[in-house]
Each structure stands twice: as C-alpha cells, then as structure tokens.
Design goal:
- The complex is a heterotrimer of chains A (382), B (519) and C (626).
- Chain A is mostly helical and 382 residues long.
- Chain A has one domain.
- Chain A has 15 helices and two strands.
- Chain A starts with 5 loop residues before the first helix and ends in a 12-residue tail after the last helix.
- The longest helix of chain B is centred in the middle third of the chain and has 32 residues.
- Chain B is mainly alpha-helical.
- The N and C termini of chain B lie far apart (55 Å).
- Chain C has three domains: 143 residues; 120 residues, no CATH class; 251 residues, no CATH class.
- Chain C has a two-stranded antiparallel ribbon with strand order 1-2.
- The chains are: A mainly alpha (382), B mainly alpha (519), C mainly alpha (626).
- Chains A and C meet through helix 5, helix 9 and helix 12 of A and helix 3, helix 7 and helix 18 of C.
Chain lengths: 382, 519, 626
C-alpha cells in the first residue's frame, strides 16, 4: 500500500539521537544559533502569541458561555453580535478558531496526563452528576437523552473542561510569546539560547499555576475542575498538550489513508508521529492539512520584519505560508527545548552522579523521541 | 451599399499581406531593435491579423456551401499558376485558428537570446504561408505556400530547438520535402493526364481519368498529406520534432501545421478524386483506426510529457481521416470540429507542458511529482492541465467531445468496426493523460530522478520559480475557447455546416453509405 | 413551449445551472485569488444555490402535480440529420428524484461544514460538489439520451476530482485513477450504444427511441428490422454505463477505492450517484427489449452483485467499505428489478436505499470525525455517548433491512410478491441479500457502538451541531419514508403483499440480525486456523481478488500492448526511417556535392523519382484517360 515515504519528506542532515542528547545535557540549544533563526523564531512566536490570544479567549468563552448549548451558532463571536462582526465572520475575515478546537480535540482524544486522569475520577463523575441534574431540570431534550445515553453529557462536560484548560494554557503561552517579542525589541533577547532561556523561565514561573473551571447554570455556579483537584499548569496541561499536539498529533486526511485495510495508522496512539515537530511543512495550504488554518492565522498577524524577510526568499509572498510553517516548526523545537530544560529532574551543572544519571535518562528519552522528528530544520543552513 | 463595399474589399489578400509585409518589415527594420520591441511589433501584427480574420465573419455568408470572397489575378498563366484565393466553411475556422495560435506562440515566447529578429519574422512568415495554403484556390499556389511554410519551421526547430535539434530538424525537413514532392507529383500528374494547364481548383477535375490513374494519384496525395497529418507509419518525425522544438514552435506545429495535412486530404484528396476516394475509403477508415490506436498505445508508453502529447496528436488526427472516409455531412462537420478542437487542445497542452518544463527543468513523468502543491508547485498550471487532458479525452462540455461525437456519429454506419476501434482509442486517451496528471501533479511535491538511489538524489525542498499570472494568459484564453466551443458548438458549426454538407453531396460517395448498412 | 406554462416550469433549465453556478461562485476562493480571508463564503454560496435548486424544484413539482407531466426542449446543436437538444422530462418520478438529489446534496453540504471544518481547500470541495449536483440534477430530469450521456460523463469527471480531492495522499492518487478509468470503460461502451442509437434511430429523445425500438422489433416492418446481433450489442453498450456508475460486478472496484475521498462526497456517492445511474438504466429499460441478451446480463450481474456484494461487505474491517459494498449489493437488486420490468419497485428501492444509505454514511462520518478511525477492530462502546450518531445508525440500518416497517421492508415485500411466482430464484436473492445485509449491519453495530470503549473511542463526544443537525433531519426523513412511498406508489399500495411474504421478509431480516448478534466479533476478522475458512475470509476481504485480477489481465494487457507498440515504433518504424535516411544521405555524399548543394540535389532526385514513379505506375495500371 503506497504511503508517502518518510525519506521523501526529509532533506537528510538529521542529527542522531546521541547528538540531540548531548546538546540537551550540555545546555546547548537544539536549533542552531543564527541571526536568521532568531528573527524567524521570535517573529513567528509573536504572531503565534497574537493568534493564541484570540484562541484562548474564544476557548474560555466557549467553555463558560456555550456550555452544553446544542446549537452554538455564534460560538466564535465571543458574545459580540454586532452586524459588522457577523459580516466579517460570514466573509471568513477572521481567526480560524476551528484550529483551536482541533488542538483541544487532539488533547482530549489522546488523553494523557493529570487532566485526563482527573476526568476519569469518581470526584469528577460526582460533579458531572450535579451539573446534569441542574441541566436536566431546565432542558427537556437533555432530560430525555441523558437516561438513554448515560455517557453523553459527561463526555461533553469533559470536552468543555479540556477546552477551558487549553484556553488557560494558551493564555499563559500567548503572554509569554508576546513578552518574548518585546524582550527581543528591548535587546534583552538576541540569540536562540536566550530565546530558549526566556521561554524556560516563563514556563517554570507558570508551572504551579492552578487550573480551575466552573460553569454557571441559572444563577448557581458549579465547579468542573475544582481547586481541590490540584491540577497545575505545567504537569497537568502543558505536558499533555506537548504530547498531543507537538508529538503525537492526528493523521492528516491529506497525507495518510484512513483505510483500515491499508493499515497506515497505528492502532496504538502512543506510536503516532503526526505532531507539529514531525509534520512536513511543504503541503501546507494543500487539501486535508489542518495546520493550514493556523498558518493562515499567523500570516494575518505576521510582524513586518519577518514578513519582509520572507518576501526576499524563494517565492516571496507566493509560498509565505509554507515558510511560516517551517519557521513555526523551528520555534516549536525551541519551546520543546525550553520545556525539556525546565523539566529536567536536576540542574544541568549538578555534580551528583545520581542526578547526572537521572538527567541523562530523561534527556535520552526525549532525544530518542525527537530523533525521528523533522530535526532537519535545526541546522544553520535551513 | 455598405455590404457591397465590404464584399469588394480584398479581405483574403489582407490576411496574406499583414504577415508577409510584417515579415519584410521586421527583417528590414532599421537599427537594432530590442527583442522586446520585436516581440511587441510581432504581437501587434498578429493581433491585426486576428482582427482581420475575425472581420471575415462579418462578410462571410455561412449559408453558402462553396468558395466565397474569391480573388483572381493572373500570375503565370502559361503554367496555370494564378493568384486565386477563396474561403469556405472548411478553411475559415482554420484561418482563425492560425491567427489565434500564431498570436499565442508569439505571446508565449520567452527566450529571446538567439537572433530574435529572424525568430519573429519566421513566425510571421509561417502564419502568412499557412493562411496562403488555406486560402489558395489554385493547386500550384497551394503548393507554393505549402512549401513556403517548411523552411521557416525548419529554421525554428534547428536554431531554437533542444539538444538534438539537428537530427529532428533534418528528419522533419526530409519527411516534409518528400510530402511536398508527392503532392506536387500528384498535382502535376493530374494536369498531365487530363491535359489541362489550368490548376484552378474550380477547373481541374479527375472525372475523365481512368480509375487506376485516379487511385495512383490519390495515393500519392494521401501519402503526401499523410506524412504531414501524420498517419502511421509516416509519423516518426513528429515526436522528435516536438521534443526538440521550443514551446511556441510546438504550439504552431501541433495546432496549425498538422491541419495542413488534414485540410489537404479533405480539400484535394476528397475534393479532386471523389470516385477514387469512394474506392479507397474503406481502406482509409482502417488506416485511421490503426493510426488512432497506434498513437494512443504509443502515448501510454511515453515518459516524456511532450512526447506523450505528440503521440496523442497522432491519435487525434486519425479521427479526421475516419470522418473523411465516411464523408457524411455529420462526419465532415466532425472533421472540421476535430481540426479546430485538436488545434486548441494540443496547443493548450503544449503550452502547459512548456510551463512545467521551464519551471522544473524536466518533462520526465518518472521524476515529477505533486505539482498541484498550492504554495510551491504549479497549481494553476495543474488545474488547466486537468482541463486540457479531460478535453483531449473527450469529456463533455469541452470541444473535444462534440468533435469526437460528430465524427463517430457520422462514421458509424459507414464503417462500424473502424469507428468502434477509434472509440476504443478515445478511451485509451483517458488512460495516458490520466497517468500524466496523476504522476506529475498528484502526490507530494518532489522531483525524484530515476536513479539507483532516488531518495538521495531527490530534490525535496523545491524552489520552483512562480508562474506569473500573465504567463498563464495564453493558456487561459485557449482553455476558455475549449470550453466555449464545447458548450456552444453552434459557434463553430454555424460557419462550417453548409460547406461540409455540400462536400458530402457528391454522388460517388452516397453509395457505400446507404448500402453499407452495418456490414 | 407554451406561454401558459408558469414561470418555474419555463425556467426549469435553471435547476442544473444552480449547481454549476456554484463552481463559478467558488472560484475566487478555490483559485487562491482571495488570499487573506478564508474559503467559507464559497461554502455558504454553494449551500444557497443548492437551496435555490431545491426550492425551484419544489415549485415545479407542485405545478406538475396539478397540470400533469410536461416536456421542455431547447435545441442545442443541429447538423444535417442530427439534432441534439437540451430536454427536460418533468414527470413526478423525475422530480421526486430531483428533490432527492437536491435535498441530499443540501444535507451533505451542511454536514461537510462540520466534517471539513479544518479543511483549507473547502472552496474547491464545494465547487466540485456544486458541479456534481448540477450534473446530477440535469441527469434525473433529462429527456434525451444524448444529454444523459453528456451529464453522466460529467459525473465521471466530478467523481474523479472529488475522489482525488486529497490529491497528495498516495492511496487517493490510485483511487481517483481507478474510479475514473473504471467508469470510463463503462462510459465508452455506453457512448458506442448512444452513437449507434443516434445513427440508427435518428432522434435521441427517449420517447422517440421507445417507439423506434418497438418498430425495430416488429416483424411486420420487414427490412427495417434490426439485426439481433446489433440489437444485442447496443443493449450491452447501454447497460455498461449504468453498470459502471452503479458499481456493479465486475466494475464495482472503484466504489471501494472511492472511499478514500471525503466522507460528505461518499454520502452523495453511495446514495444519489448510484441512484442516478440506475435511473438512466430505468429510462433505457424499454430499449432493452431489443436485446434479450442484455436483459440476461442484467439479471446475472444484478444477482452476482447483490449476493457477492453483501458477502464481501461482511468481511470488511473498514467502516466505510463495509457499507460501500452493500451499496453494490442493493443496486444489484435494483438491476434485477429493472431487468424483470418492475420499474415501480426499482424506484421505491432506489428512494428508500438512497435515503437510508445517505444517513448511514452520515453516521459513519460522525464516527470517523470523532475517533479518527475507520477500523472496526479498533472501535467500540460509542453507543452510550453519541445519541445522534447511534440513532442515525439504527434508523438507517432499520431502513435498509426488511425487518421493521421502514423503507426497504416494504420494497422487499413488494419485490418478493412481484417476482416470487414467475422467478422464485430472484425472490430468494432478495431474501438472501436482506439476510446478509442485516447480518452485516448488526455486526458493525456491535463493533462500533456496543462493547467496551477502546483507546481510540475512550473520549468520544457527540459531533458538533453542523453535523448533528443534518443527521437528525435525515433520521426523521428515513423514519417517514414509508409515507413518502405510499404517496408515490398509490396503486397497488406499498403493502400489497401477502402475509407469508411479509413473514418471509421479516424472518430473513431476523435471522440476519440473530446471526449478527451471535457471531464472535473478535474472531471475525482474526484469521481462522482452518485452511478453507481462511481462504474464504481472504477471498471476501480482498473482494474476490478483483483488483489483482484486473492488474494481471486488462492492465497488464494494455500496458504490454503499449510497450510493444512503443518498441515497434522505436525499433522498426523509426529504424527503417533512419536507415533510409542514412542510405540516401550517403548516396548524396557519393556525388561529392557541397553541403548546401546536398539538399538541392536530394530534393531534385526525389522529384524526378516521384514523377517517374507516378507516371510508370499510372501506365502500368492502364490508360490514364478513359
């Protein structure tokens, strides 16, 4: 059965796992240090930050105000129903919030980490029961469906909870990326190493931020992700997000066959390698490539310096969104790099052999995983 | 009164004057005009020629079946060579196609590095000579124009062609020279045996000739024009000429010059030798079927996109011969449609293949992949290519379909087996063109040379130059023409129907059609 | 066209134009001309024109209901004795089909807004669906064979483009190719039939063709009588097109592969596209009397497709393919009905199958969108979380199977009643198909909706409203299908079958459901240890090795012939030419002429040679002048 061979999408020059491990342990950046890379990473993260701001606001709005709404027709309008905005919405002159939902679905579906574990807990089931009880009294349709399909509403509440959690996560990331751009303008950040450090510090600072979510039904507030659940930013949301979106991802209809007989998709989701660090940027904007939506959003918020730089290479404006995707991939390697550095069990310089061994094991696990990613974009030449 | 003034104007001479005077003007232009300027002048002249050709539609009476707007001036009466022009529904669309495609060829010329002055004047010369051949009402005058077109084309291939241009150009020259000699021989023979020195189409006739002589002369004409058409096995010059010629020359060669062959067969073969034609027609139908299937099968095996399109030309021109053999009104109108259709579609395909070649540096179907990629590929070219190949495969809504339908519908009762075989050939067209689109345009964008280790040699991060919108204009115009005639065939049928119906009227041909049944 | 006709009828030609206009309306987004904004306006515009087509169709239907069938014809192209027209046959049957087409197109397009919400090439998708719908709606109204062929071929093209929508995916590339070529084979054969009929009968209007066919068969017509062989060949040509379109054995392979295309297109393909192919066959039915052979072929093909399609469906692990083969199977039953001259039965079956199958594919689409998975062995436990999807599947299944009194139950009852006496064999075929389909639906339902959740179905929220709304609407429609059928078929009424027949139909459905509930699912796909059973599983799962057979026969034959021709061309034809060229150039060389003179002398030699040759030939064959 024909598949797009991995060899066909990579340009070679992929560093082996040992090299990645060495860089991680030596505190070197994965991405090569060049002025072009700094421009690309900071620029693309700035536009990504602006897009994430909109995504985050919308996800939180959806989770809080469109909760269990069977016909959320205006869910992308953030409650602002003026005609001009509706017209822009109809004219598709807007952020593609569908991509935010896509990332949320990826997180929900892959279901790893603390948030997912909580969604399966008895505590959560009890909260759901209360919410459903309150909802059933107001909504006849739900009252009819719930007894017949017992998991129907809990599943939707899990979705809403994931939506809200992702919204909170992106709130932090958006601010971090925008701050990064400001820092670069101030001259506080001028190299890839400083970019990674900046991101690492931001992630570490937010690591313990609690993730909570409550919905209002009638006048009463119902907790969905209560503070007692103890969910925190880094471990319970950021790590599952990286796992679901950066690493595993979901197969693109435009490149992979879903045909069961062709067996192109692994039955084990843990084996998936369709995420942002693995994807091929070239088909961007082609049919069946969901990240095209994100690239379009970033294209609309591209900082001028980066846009001008893109105009000078290859097709200029003609293939700008493929170039954004390539830059985005580099930026995501930096974010991953920062996340790994931030979650190393022990400080890099630690002299304790046990700590060194733990660090090494941790770095090796990551390096093995990343060795088959699109690391060909990391070299100075690309 | 206005109309009589219009009618009296020598329109046909104007159609010769514009390109021929243009040729001289270009050659004698003072100083060293820049290539862009030369191109501009050429485009202006060819646009004027197109306008003049379109103006013919105003004065042409589509209700008449015979020659119109005739002009006659004595030239060398002693050998029967007179300047005698006329146009009818058979030649009128071809004159238009010639004007349009020469203009397209001039517009899509990108490489001015070598002798632009000669290049553009040769384009004009070809256009004028082709117009002359289509409009000549005198056998010798036709022959002169027919030969006149040969030299500039030879130059265009041998100066501006690919690596093996010398071989291809010589092959072309020899084949076409033989073709010309056979035609001249047949013309001279006809005059010799009938004892006339008047080579006017209206005066000369084969009626008094014995059937044997008629058949010999007709055979000479058939082989002569069959080389030009080209019919199997006289076709081998064509793929070579196409692969070596530059894109504009291929457009002219496929779109216009091959039509001289079909036009000649219909005008002179069928027109001058109706009795012998009726005798040979069953054989011609078989010949047509062989050509169609042979061309299509050979096209399937090609890996060079241009060669594939060239072999597809061989297949498609075979339909015209089939229609001529059947010679019913519907079939002959189908032949006219097929000539126009093939002119537009093959020109379109050569333009697009040319674009792919210019951008990627290769035409090899084993190498090209995924050109539909919207950002880095050639998506617009790909879209037009899908349209073009579908038109060529006879997809309804485009002119190829109505042409094939008319040919098949008109020929089926006369030659059922040959027609059905040709329809199979039409099905095969879909096979090779689908392979072309699927290989080169679908899949992931990559250029993977067929070597021992294709992956290592693959050019993956492809930096193809973008196709500017104005580069696509000629192809877009042709595509619109293909669609317009496909949706509104009366746009063409209106002008040709009276002529093709009149051509089908000669009694010798009626017998096999009515008696043949389905045998 | 009389002036008295109301405007909606006079403007009926607009109905296909609505769909086609969707293509033009989508162009600014599909071509990338609009660069900053997204492609959704193209989707909205297409929905709008489809709604217009549906509304216009409804108005026309109401008018026709009152004033009876109308026929409109516009001359398209005439030459000599050939007259090609754009003709519309406004009968209630055709209009019902039109409403089915436009309504399902509307629902599928709405569904696609949700299913393809992350699709950047949305405008191209909608343009293609618009093209599809335009061709389909013209096809069902068409009053002449030429226009039907014209639009059928356009459908082939749009199928190719829709299947090839995700053009960068390698399996799509082969699927689109095979879909086009398989249909094209049918189309070329059909074209042969169309051209032959056009040449023999003159007119292309169906009504004229019917009377021509009646005359051509009439022994009293003497010489004008058509040779039986010709009649048979025409009949075979005519059924080849619908066979390809309806994915009948042996031209069924494309439908399986076409499942690589986007699901909203699969909804249409499995419901209205196959229906349109069958409708063309239905219109051709009176002509098939010319050809007893064609009728026999129809019966054989229909029977094989019905039974084998249902059997192959049983062995599929792919969710979409399990039901695409069932489409082949049901269309096989329609073919049988047409061959046995039961047009009313065929129509009812098409209607109830079309609606139920469209719903089934919507449900399947929801499952795929939620789980990213089409593999039955990896699915399970969706039943208690996806109410709309589950109910849609159940209702669609019930509508397809003769067990509960929804659409197909009545069709099967009527079918068994109608053919049971004269052709008991085909009654058995109907019952067996019913049994196998019930079995297949039950086993798929168990794998997907029952049992424990799997890793891929652990988090499965119901689909968003853009998909749920059309799905629920269609669910309701399938539930009321029997009422629609009762209006369409007042005589003899949809319940005109005896109690034993009713019991037989329900019984066969029940047995199917029973077996489907009892078989062990986990073993169903895992390969059996027993060699014969294992062979059978593979045989069915791989569709009787049809693809392999094709590759080793037709494809290999054409490819071989092409290579052979190419070799002949290069070695023999071109070789001879090069040889002659070398020889003659050498002889010219021998004359020791300058390079420039070479050509002249060459040409001169040739001229003289030819003149001499021609003259001598002429004298050899006799006096030149009579």
């Amino acid at each position: 059965m024909p598949v797009i061979s991995a060899d066909l999408t990579r340009q070679g020059g992929m560093p082996p796992a040992a090299e990645l491990e060495r860089r991680l342990l030596a505190g070197q950046t994965l991405l090569a240090e060049t002025p072009g890379h700094v421009l690309e990473v900071v620029g693309v993260l700035e536009s990504y930050g602006e897009v994430l701001d909109a995504y985050s606001r919308n996800l939180i709005y959806q989770a809080e105000h469109q909760f269990l709404n069977p016909f959320p027709i205006f869910k992308f309008l953030d409650g602002d129903l003026n005609p001009a905005k509706i017209w822009r919405h109809l004219n598709h002159d807007r952020i593609n919030f569908e991509y935010a939902e896509y990332c949320m679905k990826a997180m929900l579906w892959h279901g790893t980490g603390g948030l997912d574990a909580y969604l399966d807990s008895q505590a959560f089931a009890d909260l759901c029961a209360k919410i459903i009880e309150a909802k059933r009294r107001k909504d006849l349709l739900l009252g009819l469906l719930d007894p017949l399909f017992r998991q129907f509403l809990p599943e939707l509440i899990r979705t809403a909870a994931t939506t809200h959690a992702l919204g909170q996560f992106w709130r932090v990331m958006s601010d971090l990326f925008i701050d990064l751009a400001a820092a670069e303008r101030d001259g506080r950040v001028a190299s890839i190493a400083q970019v990674v450090d900046f991101l690492k510090d931001g992630l570490v600072a937010a690591a313990a931020k609690p993730i909570t979510y409550a919905v209002t039904i009638g006048l009463e507030s119902f907790p969905v992700l209560p503070p007692e659940a103890g969910l925190t930013f880094l471990v319970d949301v950021a790590v599952p997000y990286v796992e679901a979106v950066f690493l595993r991802g979901m197969p693109f209809l435009g490149t992979v066959s879903f045909n069961a007989q062709a067996q192109q998709i692994s039955p084990d989701q843990a084996q998936f390698a369709y995420g942002a660090l693995f994807a091929d940027p070239l088909p961007t904007m082609g049919a069946g490539i969901p990240p095209s939506l994100l690239m379009q959003d970033m294209y609309r918020h591209l900082p001028k310096s980066l846009h001008d730089w893109y105009l000078q290479c290859s097709r200029g404006e003609g293939d700008v969104r493929v170039k954004i995707c390539a830059s985005f991939q580099k930026a995501m390697f930096c974010v991953t790099n920062a996340a790994i550095a931030g979650t190393l069990p022990h400080p890099i310089g630690s002299g304790d052999p046990q700590a060194q061994a733990a660090n090494q094991a941790y770095a090796r696990a990551w390096a093995t995983r990343l060795a088959s990613a699109r690391t060909d974009c990391l070299s100075a030449a690309s | 009164m206005m109309s009589s003034v219009l009618m009296a104007f020598p329109w046909l001479s104007l159609l010769l004057a514009i390109p021929f005077l243009g040729t001289f003007a270009l050659l004698l232009w003072p100083g060293e005009p820049s290539p862009g300027r030369l191109r501009g002048i050429t485009i202006g002249l060819l646009a004027a020629q197109l306008v003049a050709s379109l103006a013919l539609l105003l004065v042409f009476d589509p209700a008449l079946g015979g020659m119109q707007l005739e002009e006659l001036h004595s030239w060398v009466p002693s050998i029967g060579l007179n300047y005698q022009l006329g146009v009818d529904g058979l030649s009128l669309p071809l004159v238009l196609i010639n004007a349009a495609l020469t203009l397209v060829a001039a517009v899509c010329t990108r490489d001015f590095s070598k002798r632009p002055r000669i290049y553009f004047s040769m384009l004009l010369l070809i256009s004028g000579a082709v117009n002359g051949a289509f409009l000549a009402e005198n056998l010798l005058l036709f022959f002169l124009f027919y030969e006149l077109e040969l030299i500039p084309l030879w130059l265009l291939i041998s100066i501006w062609g690919g690596n093996q241009r010398a071989y291809a150009a010589t092959k072309f020259l020899i084949f076409t020279a033989v073709s010309g000699m056979l035609i001249l021989g047949a013309f001279l023979g006809l005059a010799l045996f009938t004892g006339t020195v008047d080579f006017s189409l209206t005066a000369i006739t084969s009626e008094r000739l014995a059937m044997g002589s008629q058949i010999v002369l007709l055979s000479a004409l058939l082989v002569g024009f069959g080389i030009k058409l080209p019919l199997v096995p006289f076709h081998t010059w064509l793929p070579d000429a196409h692969t070596q010629a530059s894109t504009p020359v291929s457009v002219l060669l496929a779109g216009v010059l091959l039509k001289l062959g079909t036009y000649g067969i219909l005008r002179f073969g069928m027109g001058l030798f109706p009795e012998a034609w009726a005798q040979l027609a069953p054989g011609l139908a078989i010949w047509a079927a062989i050509t169609v299937v042979y061309g299509s099968l050979a096209a399937i095996a090609q890996r060079d996109m241009k060669r594939m399109v060239a072999y597809s030309s061989v297949g498609h021109m075979g339909y015209v011969l089939l229609a001529g053999a059947a010679a019913t009104p519907v079939a002959l109108l189908g032949a006219e449609f097929q000539m126009v259709s093939h002119g537009l579609i093959s020109a379109l395909l050569f333009l697009l293949v040319g674009t792919v070649y210019r951008k990627t540096g290769t035409r090899d179907l084993d190498v090209l992949r995924g050109l539909l990629n919207p950002e880095r590929g050639l998506p617009f070219t790909g879209t037009l290519m899908i349209l073009g190949v579908m038109a060529s495969a006879g997809m309804p809504g485009m002119v190829g379909f109505i042409a094939e339908f008319l040919v098949f519908r008109g020929s089926l009762l006369a030659y059922p087996i040959a027609t059905l075989v040709c329809m199979v050939g039409s099905g095969l067209t879909a096979v090779y063109f689908l392979l072309l689109v699927n290989r080169a345009f679908f899949g992931r964008l990559a250029i993977t040379p067929a070597s021992d280790n294709p992956v290592d040699d693959a050019r993956l991060d492809i930096q193809l130059a973008p196709v500017a919108p104005r580069e696509t204009l000629p192809a877009l115009a042709l595509a619109l023409g293909v669609l317009a005639l496909g949706l509104f065939p009366a746009l063409l049928g209106h002008w040709s129907e009276a002529t093709t119906t009149a051509m089908a009227q000669f009694p010798a041909l009626l017998a096999p059609i009515t008696d043949g049944g389905l045998g | 066209m009389t002036a008295a006709l109301p405007l909606p009828i006079q403007l009926v030609w607009l109905i296909p134009v609505y769909g086609f206009s969707g293509v033009l309306l989508s162009l600014p987004w599909a071509t990338g001309w609009v660069k900053r904004n997204g492609p959704r306006p193209a989707a909205y515009l297409n929905l709008l024109v489809t709604l217009l087509a549906f509304a216009h169709g409804s108005l026309v239907t109401l008018d026709i209901w009152q004033r009876g069938p109308q026929h409109l014809s516009i001359n398209w192209f005439s030459v000599a004795d050939l007259h090609l027209a754009i003709g519309f046959d406004l009968t209630l049957t055709n209009l019902a089909a039109l409403e089915l087409v436009t309504l399902l197109s509307l629902l599928a397009q709405f569904f696609a807004l949700g299913y393809l919400d992350k699709e950047w090439s949305l405008a191209r998708f909608y343009a293609l669906v618009g093209f599809f719908e335009g061709a389909l709606s013209g096809l069902v109204l068409s009053s002449n064979l030429f226009m039907s062929y014209f639009l059928l071929e356009m459908l082939t093209l749009s199928t190719y483009l829709l299947v090839g929508f995700w053009y960068a995916q390698p399996l799509v590339v082969t699927a689109a190719r095979d879909a086009f070529l398989t249909k094209r084979v049918g189309d070329v054969l059909l074209l042969m039939g169309v051209v032959a009929l056009s040449a023999l009968a003159g007119s292309m209007e169906f009504t004229d063709l019917y009377s021509w066919a009646a005359q051509a068969q009439d022994p009293s017509q003497g010489t004008a009588r058509l040779a039986p062989l010709v009649g048979s060949l025409i009949g075979l040509g005519l059924i080849a097109g619908p066979m390809g379109k309806c994915a009948q054995f042996p031209m069924h392979l494309w439908l399986d592969e076409a499942m690589e295309g986007p699901n909203p297109a699969s909804i249409l393909r499995n419901s209205v596209v196959v229906t349109s192919g069958a409708l063309v066959l239905l219109k051709l039915m009176p002509l098939l009397r010319l050809s007893p052979m064609a009728t026999t072929v129809l019966l054989v093909v229909g029977t094989i497709s019905a039974i084998a399609g249902a059997l192959v469906a049983l062995a599929q692990v792919d969710l979409k393919r399990a039901f695409s083969y069932s489409t082949t199977s049901y269309l096989g039953l329609v073919f049988i009905a047409i061959a046995l001259e039961q047009p009313a039965l065929a129509l009812l079956l098409l209607l109830s199958h079309g609606l139920a199958k469209a719903l089934l594919f919507m449900s399947v689409g929801s499952v795929i969108a939620t789980t990213n998975c089409q593999d039955l062995t990896e699915l399970g436990g969706l039943g208690n979380r996806m109410p709309a999807t589950t109910l849609a599947f159940l209702v669609a299944g019930a509508g397809l199977v003769g067990l509960v009194p929804l659409g197909c139950y009545w069709c099967f009852g009527l079918g068994v009643q109608a053919v049971g006496q004269a052709h008991p064999l085909f009654a058995v075929v109907i019952l067996l198909t019913n049994l196998l389909t019930a079995l297949n639906l039950t086993r798929v339902f168990r794998s997907v909706f029952l049992g424990a959740a799997t890793p891929k179905t652990k988090r499965a929220p119901e689909v968003n409203w853009l998909m749920a709304l059309p799905m629920v609407s269609l669910t309701v429609l399938v539930l009321v299908t029997p009422l629609l059928m009762a209006r369409i078929n007042p005589v003899p009424g949809i319940s005109a079958f005896s109690l034993p027949v009713a019991l037989a139909v329900a019984g066969s459905g029940l047995v199917g459901v029973g077996i489907g509930s009892l078989i062990r699912l986990d073993q169903f796909w895992s390969r059996s240890i027993q060699q014969p059973l294992r062979g059978l599983q593979d045989l069915l799962a791989l569709d009787f090795y049809t693809e392999k057979i094709y590759r080793n026969t037709i494809v290999a034959f054409v490819a071989g012939l092409a290579r052979f021709t190419n070799a002949i061309d290069r070695q023999v034809v071109n070789g001879v030419v090069n040889g002659i060229g070398r020889l003659s150039l050498q002889s010219a060389e021998n004359l020791k002429l300058s390079v420039s003179g070479q050509l002249q002398s060459y040409v001169l030699t040739v001229v003289i040679a030819i003149v001499v040759l021609l003259s001598s030939l002429t004298w050899m064959v006799g006096e030149a002048v009579r």
